C-alpha cells in the first residue's frame, strides 16, 4: 500500500466565477482589514478554485510583499489533523494501536503520576477525552518549569509534568479540548517509531506525499513570506519573526505552516478517502479520523445533521487563522487562510465561506 502512486487532481478554474469570487474576497479583505487571504474549493477529482490575495504585511504594498500562490500560511490547530494522520499511518503499519495505553509504553512513570490518567489511550489523547489540562492560553505556559534540550526532549519533560498534574474535571461536555494532549500522544508515537515527530512529519508529508511544509511562522524561515498580525494599541500590526513566541511544547497540536496548494492536496486526500476510495490511508481509516467519535474525532470536529455529514477545524495562534470544512455528503471541501485572526477578520472569513458554498448550492 505504501508504494501506491498518488495522483493529485488540480484543475484551477479562472473563469468568470473565479474572477468574481476574487473580487468578493478582496472586498471582504478591505472591509474586515485582512492583509492577505487565500482560499480553495476542492472536489474529489479537482481543485476547482484556488486564489491568494493581498499583501504579506499590512504596512507594505511593495511588490515583494504582494500575495503569491506559493505563500505559506500557519495552520494553527489544523496541524492536529496532520498529527492524527501520521498516527493513523503508524496504526496501519502496526506500530501502535488506537487503544494503546500511555502507561503501557511508559510504565516507569506510572507510580508517580495521577491515577486519573492510568488508562488513557492514544485515541483518548487525540480526541480530547483524556482529561489533560488544555494549555490553550499563554498564561498556562508561563507557569511551567524550565524544560531543556531538543524540542522532542522538552516535550518529553512537558508530558511527564502533565501526567502528574490535576485532571480536568468531568462535566457534561463530550470532550475537553487540549493542545497538551497532543504532546503526550506524540511522545507515544515517537516511542514506537524510534524517531521524532519532526522526522515523522518529514517522512509522511515530504518524502511520501511530496508536500511542502515548514515548522513555525512563515516569516521565520523567509522574511518575505506572510507575516502574522495582531492588535497593538487598537491597531492591526504585523508580528516580527524575532518576537519571543514559542509554540514548540505543543508543536504537534498547532505549529505547522503550508502552502495553500499543498495543504489543499492533503485535504483532498481526506475527501477522497471519505468518498470511499483507499489512497495513502485506507478509506475506513479516514472515516475513523473524521467520524470515529461524536463531535470531535482525531484532529477533526464533526456534525451529523439532517443526513448531512460535515467535518471541520479552525486553527489560530492569534496571528494567523485557518479554517477547513469537508462536506462528506456533497463531496466538497473548503479552505480559507488569513494572516490575522481578529474577530472582524473571522467574520469576513465565514462570509466568504458562505459565498463559496452557495456556488455549489450548499
TrEMBL record:
Example of a GO MF term: hydrolase activity
Keyword Membrane recorded: yes
Keywords: Hydrolase, Membrane
Entry superkingdom: Bacteria
rRNA-binding among keywords: no
Gene3D superfamilies: DD-peptidase/beta-lactamase superfamily
Domain Beta-lactamase-related positions: 29-342
Subcellular location: Membrane
Name the UniProt record assigns to this protein: Serine hydrolase
Source species: Flavobacterium frigidarium
Amino acid at each position: 500500500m505504501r508504494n501506491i502512486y498518488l495522483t493529485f487532481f488540480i484543475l484551477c478554474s479562472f473563469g468568470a466565477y473565479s474572477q468574481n469570487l476574487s473580487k468578493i474576497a478582496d472586498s471582504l479583505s478591505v472591509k474586515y482589514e485582512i492583509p492577505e487571504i487565500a482560499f480553495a474549493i476542492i472536489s474529489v477529482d479537482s481543485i476547482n478554485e484556488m486564489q491568494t490575495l493581498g499583501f504579506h504585511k499590512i504596512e507594505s504594498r511593495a511588490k515583494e510583499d504582494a500575495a503569491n500562490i506559493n505563500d505559506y500560511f500557519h495552520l494553527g490547530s489544523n496541524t492536529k489533523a496532520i498529527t492524527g494522520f501520521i498516527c493513523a499511518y503508524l496504526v496501519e503499519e502496526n506500530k501502535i494501536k488506537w487503544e494503546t495505553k500511555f502507561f503501557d509504553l511508559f510504565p516507569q512513570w506510572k507510580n508517580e503520576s495521577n491515577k486519573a490518567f492510568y488508562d488513557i489511550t492514544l485515541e483518548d489523547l487525540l480526541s480530547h477525552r483524556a482529561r489533560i489540562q488544555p494549555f490553550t492560553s499563554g498564561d498556562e505556559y508561563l507557569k511551567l518549569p524550565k524544560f531543556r534540550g531538543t524540542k522532542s526532549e522538552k516535550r518529553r519533560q512537558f508530558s511527564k509534568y502533565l501526567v502528574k498534574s490535576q485532571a480536568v474535571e468531568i462535566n457534561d461536555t463530550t470532550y475537553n479540548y487540549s493542545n497538551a494532549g497532543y504532546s503526550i500522544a506524540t511522545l507515544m508515537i515517537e516511542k514506537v517509531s524510534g524517531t521524532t515527530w519532526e522526522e515523522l512529519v518529514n517522512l509522511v508529508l515530504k518524502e511520501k506525499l511530496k508536500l511542502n511544509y515548514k515548522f513555525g511562522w512563515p516569516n521565520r524561515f523567509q522574511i518575505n513570506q506572510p507575516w502574522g498580525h495582531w492588535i497593538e494599541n487598537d491597531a492591526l500590526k504585523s508580528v516580527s519573526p524575532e518576537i519571543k513566541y514559542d509554540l514548540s511544547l505543543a508543536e504537534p497540536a498547532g505549529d505547522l505552516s503550508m502552502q495553500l496548494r499543498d495543504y489543499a492536496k492533503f485535504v483532498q486526500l481526506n475527501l477522497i478517502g471519505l468518498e470511499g476510495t483507499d489512497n495513502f490511508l485506507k478509506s475506513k481509516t479516514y472515516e475513523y479520523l473524521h467520524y470515529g467519535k461524536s463531535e470531535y474525532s482525531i484532529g477533526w470536529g464533526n456534525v451529523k445533521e439532517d443526513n448531512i455529514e460535515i467535518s471541520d477545524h479552525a486553527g489560530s495562534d492569534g496571528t494567523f487563522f485557518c479554517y477547513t470544512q469537508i462536506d462528506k455528503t456533497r463531496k466538497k471541501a473548503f479552505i480559507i487562510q488569513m494572516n490575522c485572526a481578529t474577530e472582524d477578520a473571522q467574520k469576513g472569513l465565514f462570509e466568504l465561506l458562505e459565498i463559496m458554498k452557495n456556488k455549489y448550492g450548499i
